[in-house]
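Feature request disguised as a bug report, sorry. It would help if multi-protein outputs had a clear separator. Right now it looks like this:
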Amino acid sequence: MNTTPTRARKSRTRLTGTRKTVVDASGVIVGRLASYVAKRLLTGEEIVVVNAEKAVISGSKGHVVDAFKTRLGRRTLGSQTKAPKHPRRPEMYVRRVVRGMLPWKKPRGKMAYRRLEVYVGVPQDLKDASLQTFPDAVKDLYPSMTVGALMCIFGWTNPLEVSHRAP
């Protein structure tokens, strides 16, 4: 007879009937938005964030730009594959902020992160969807700047505003 103790396994419940919520990030402070989104992702919802370039970062323009430059200066002298990755597109920046509020290194956090989609503008398939916003997260601070304006300073061009010129 085997007398070795066995570990009790946690039952893994599958999430059935997940809801897909479309959230508008226009004029919303990005940190507050991320905290609300992260909490809902952990409960099993699928979240789609649209208008990521219109999310707001609180603080003066100079302070926000200097803080981002400092963050870009972090690097490694070793392997570049292990170096920190710094997003320079608004949708990836917002996605990264949400990731910072999830338990990323645990399976629960990774699964929650996979349920997140972030877009610049509103995609065609979501034009008719009802957009939700978080009233507590709406911008009420001055000065501030948008995520799109910050990323434009560092080389991103908004594909929704670029006029196509004939050659």
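(second protein starts here, but nothing in the output says so)
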Amino acid sequence: MQTNTNQVHNIPAIPIFLIGFMGSGKTFLGKQLAEKLQFPFFDVDLEIEKKSNMNVNDIFQHKGEKYFRDVESGILIDWNKNGIIATGGGIVISKINREFLTKKEHKVLWLNPPWEVIRSRIINSYRPIVLERTEDELFELWNKRTLLYKECADISCDARNLECLIDAVSNDQ
């Protein structure tokens, strides 16, 4: 991998993985961050869809979460591109994924808005994980994963806006 540097923010062009619970803004803010830094943007869920020739909801419905997580892990472990990479909210479930995120030469940015913000973004969505759980179960899942995100993160940001992400990445260098 060739490492260039963003001239404006002096951020090396390395893989910057965005982790966080569903609804934390990984895709939305990740695209903005990539554009601002002039880095490519990748979404692991889209990579899973390409590899499986199915959308995420269909994968969960027809092949199950285990299949989805196995494909997700394979894509993550084989990752070799620089840029901003939005991961799925459950990427930290697998120990292999956590080991990858904590040992490779890249940055891991945890988008960590308060539960109330996440709740407002996901409560009426059609995500398989949301459809299968009550609001209390979603809160418990968020709370449980918080420790895993913290374990993997080089940087944490409340993910309320793009400037927060730029500052978090820029100040970590």
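Even a blank line would do. Unrelated, but nice: The mean pLDDT is 88.
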